[in-house]
Amino acid sequence: MYQFDTNFTSIPVSRGSCRIVMFALIDLLLEREDCKGPGYSSPLEAFKNGAREKLLYVVCVQPDLTKQDYLATVDVDPESPTYSQVIHRTYTGSVGDELHHSGWNVCSSCHDNPELKRNLLILPALHSAKIFAVDVGTNPRKPELHKVIDGAEMKSFNCAYPHTAHCLATGDIMISTMGDKNGNGKGDFVLVDAKTLKVKGTWTKGDKIAKFGYDFWYQPYYDVMIASEWGSPKSFTCGFRPEDIPNRDLYGVSLNVYKWSTRELQQVIDLGDEGCGPLEIRFLHDPKASQGFVGCAVEANIFRFYKASDDTWKAQKVIDIPAKTVKKDGEEFKLNGLMSDILLSLDDKYLYTSCWLHGDVRQYDVTDPEHPKLTGRIVLGGRVVNDDLTVIEDKEFQEMTQKPVYVKNKRLYGSPQMIQLSLDGKRLYVSSSLYSPWDKQIYPKMTEKGGWIVKLDVDIENGGLKLDPDFLIDFGCEPNGPVLPHEMRYPGGDCTSDIWLAKD
């Protein structure tokens, strides 16, 4: 006779039945793993074992302010008969909202709680301060509007212009805000109860409030959260005004460092002029990493931030994309890249970024975070080709002329903006809209013709990007006219929505 311990009791079994019991125990262990909460246990588990994406949830902004924004559901399953098509639209039910970014009711930070389900996509509206909760769990291919939190709730705490939404392990949803209810710059955060969907109040404690707000990422292992800055809503909502950039009361240049456990702003890192407009911020996915990157829009630079030996946080510029000298109608001027998005692959090997004015998407190997190496690049648009500019000097490349890009016989007007990477790192989706007031000003033809999403195939071994000629989502053919696609999400989480917590 043999004894086989199941962690519940010791059961005597015969030699003949031992094999059956072993398989039963394997099934039990698998069942226990299946009972885990949302997301994945670690970023590497998601990278190695995550399912291939079959749907994209895309925020779509209607440039015609008499019509509604919506969440588009896009089929990205190559085996599906509706591959690379919009298969459903979930409208907000109101106008003038300006949907922008999105997040989840719960994510991988809640993986150890089997009672929680990732079933609501949270859509803060930048202009109206409303928060739309969309049910994607009941029917993932046909999401329905679950609840609308009126903008008055957020504004009652003197917060408005919401941006990034992250779920917390506490069961709350945390949303960064960029201004007060009057449109002045103010960096704060509101908390929403993930069950009741009521705005509970602000997250920040203490007397210090950040001058501006934008994105944030928390790393509880080091008891820290770091937030970035755009600027004053009174400026950026009126369009891209270069004359406002030097004014430090209108554009931010800092990273704001908070003590996570006390919610207090403890340190402000001034990045200087080269760090103007620090937008998307990403810690390395490793939950014990003490460093990350932030993309600084105006000068198209990337800074690495890190914990120093004296326990303060510091930043250093590690990527500098130089301005191009261009000419139009006999006038020469400098064209900066305007870096608008960055993300990291789940194995922390590659960093991807887009430059909205230069029109390229780049891949950097950041295995050595202090010395990133450019390993892939592709041009999909930008001002040079959209505005018929003549390049006089390019300090990086010998690209004195650029040609329009066509996919499936459709010209891509505008430029690459938001990016989203597959869990395995092999596919990079790219959308074209930055923010509708800026879209209308910088790329009016894209606004008229509609935005787009394309797919880049990624070489994850040696580096490299290649445009898929057979994939295009054309948002110029939508039922209520052309729309502008911005952020993209997968139903099961992705590289920019999920934050992992250290296990010890």
From TrEMBL:
Record carries keyword Zinc: no
Pfam hit, one: SBP56
GO molecular function: selenium binding
Keyword annotations: Selenium
KW Cytoplasm (keyword) present: no
Stated family: Belongs to the selenium-binding protein family.
Protein name: Selenium-binding protein 1
Organism this protein belongs to: Papilio xuthus (Asian swallowtail butterfly)
